[in-house]
Amino acid sequence: MTDSDDAGSLSPRERRKLTRVRSDRTMIATLAGTGLIAAFMQTLVTPIIPRLPVFLDSSTADASWVLTSTLLAAAISTPISGRLGDMYGKRRMVLILLALLVTGSVVSALSNTLIPMVVGRVLQGFGLGVIALGISILRDVIHPKNLGGAVALVSATLGIGGALGLPLAALIADNLDWHFLFWLGGALGLLAIVLVATIIPVSTLRTGGRFDFAGALGLAIGLVCVLLAISKATTWGLVALGLGIAGLVVLAIWGYLELRIHDPLIDLRVAARRPVLLTNLASISVGFAFFVVSASLPVVLEAPVASGVGLGLPLLIASLCLMPLGIAMFFVSPFAARVTAARGARFSLILGGLIITVGFAFGTVLLDEVWHALLVSTITGIGVGFAYAAMPTLIMQSVPPTETAASNGLNSVMRTLGSSIAATVVGIILSSQLIMVGEVAVPSRASFAWVFAVGTAVALAGVIVGLFIPRRSPNYDTSSIPIQTP
Description:
Elements: H1 12-18, H2 24-43, H3 52-56, H4 60-63, H5 65-88, H6 90-109, H7 114-126, H8 129-141, H9 144-175, H10 180-199, H11 213-231, H12 233-236, H13 238-258, H14 268-271, H15 274-302, H16 315-343, H17 345-365, H18 370-398, H19 404-432, E1 434-437, E2 440-443, H20 445-467
Antiparallel strand pairs: 1-2
Helix pairs in contact: 2-8, 2-9, 2-10, 5-6, 5-7, 5-8, 5-11, 5-19, 6-7, 6-8, 6-10, 8-9, 8-19, 9-16, 9-18, 11-13, 15-16, 15-18, 15-19, 15-20, 16-17, 16-18, 17-18, 17-20, 18-19, 19-20
């Protein structure tokens, strides 16, 4: 037998290798770095969005698919790759997703027209599934005393990678050929493959059974329809409404069938447990909050000063002003882990929601100076950091180890759903109250106040949902391979 993630019993050589696992810190750093690289793919094209129609010889509407396709691919692939990871090995699936990410980066780097670019971005979107898989791997390989901090850090990489990667992407876009963005993405993906293959041990805990291809197809169709309906609601009108209804019907049928097969893609009975269900609902509000900041603050920072709203900053400086969102998430993650260990993940989730609410309340009245944007970004980052640390812990406390990756994948979809809803809501509000600065239409100050007011209400709704999460959950074993003694 080869030294691989093949199903079945392990060879003596593989068993010896499992007793010589790397230190917890090394494995945590590897999975966190992999998550940062995957998250960077989200903001990779942000600096060149206004120029994409020229670069790709396409219309503005068509060029928007460069962003939309990545979102859809991530939402679809994350729960599916999670289930495959539970069945055939989580490390194996991480390596496959990273290989798809590298392939997509190369395809995009060689593209000068829309269709190959979208294909490349879809493949890059698949790579975002490594974050949920990485969190699930931690449960298998990290000593329980280190698990809380590790989960908090890796979970936060989704926000950290995007916030820190934006200034880097802006710097490259302003000084180099735009294709270099994708070559950089490919190089980082290759680095992640090498690190995961050499440092992360093979996955020994697997569920077995048969993969639910029909369930995967049904989930993919339903999610695509719903997410497209949300993201294109303002431009597609009745078509988007029809897609949304069709998607909900497909998901209803999918759920009915998933409850009646032996090896479902997602065990909905587990997903319907009160702690899991309420955590997923709260995740929608956190995803909503994160995108509100990411979508609205750049407009304020970059809009012309003559509008009376904007601060007139160039793209690179505006990107640097958003870094506190990710930096706060990074530095708060170990503290959030300690709070979670002392008071419980439920407490951390509620606390995170309350902090987000405070940040958004400031945003409704304070957006007139650069430091106002920095304050809102920092407070929101702290709140999201607490929430991101709590959600995977709540999920893993409530599901058996054999369903960790699939359940975390579903939780990631809920965050994505929240971000998609936020994108539509922010777009509708900002476009409803425009003022003219010369020949340029800019959102009014009142529209930003409404954006953060709605965000405040959504964050409070998440807090209320969190209050109904049970204080106690079933206790499951947290490791599946030999662990080092502390």
